[in-house]
Input
Amino acid sequence: PNAYDVALNDWRLENFEEKFSLTLDLLKDELIKNRVRPLIKALKKSKVAPFIGAGLSIPCGKKSWPAMLLDIGQRSNRIDQDKFKEVLDSGDYIEAADIIASGSSEQLDEYIKLSLSDATPCGAVMHLPDIASECIITSNLDCILESVYHEKGKPFDDGYMYGIQENHFFHHLVSGGRCLLKIHGTCLSPATQVFTRDQYDRAYGDEDNVDFSRILPKALRQIFVSNSLLFLGCSLIQDRTLELFEKVIESGQYFIPDHYALLEKPEDGDVRDREHELAKLNIHPIWYPFEKHEHVEDFIQFL
Output
């Protein structure tokens, strides 16, 4: 029996090391290892709220937001294509969405509904219910998360918030129940969507001043100060949501928990500037090699 137990433990260790070789390679970096340890402790205490970006929907056949805007813009003959391309290339996606909406808001609504409503979940997103079954946040408009959690017997029927439309979300958030926040709304309802400048201003307040009396900033602040966020499939390039988190920190009114992000290294491998930017938001990056996105699924399964 003793020999059997030793052999079984050896087999389990060997099998684990083979299955999660990608993540174990990342953990050879002592800094990364020291960031993952407290993340695992927070997961065990159910104090982690995954923040899901387009990177987890792309393997399911969906496009990134910039790719969607480019596709919609190129289909329109009512906008100045040169100006639109220039704005999109600069990374000003709010302005790009404004240009499209000014040409044909109906076309924008139709494209989003038809291209995002159907989905066949696959890849990393399938493992999310195994690490988090309480609060989930996403910037995606598709219905992939709802589908995955429904298949796992953990639907969000009782607590969700799409853009600024709230359905028992806060009740479940503060009581530890399962709830979903889709900060940009859902593809099924144009009335919930937040991506043009006017929609952002209605949701957050004007560009220079976040209005925390409004429901979406209030929800994001509550999550930011009460959970450790785990950003997955997000680029974390400066946007209104990150600006909101920055305002919360600058207020000095809250103790901010540690937040984490699984991020692709820049092509040149130099992460110093990004580390400095993210440190201001108390976000600790866990870097994986450039264009090696298979690390995302491996990391979630490892957790």
About this structure: The mean pLDDT is 92. The radius of gyration is 20 Å. The CA atoms of residues 66 and 91 lie 8 Å apart.
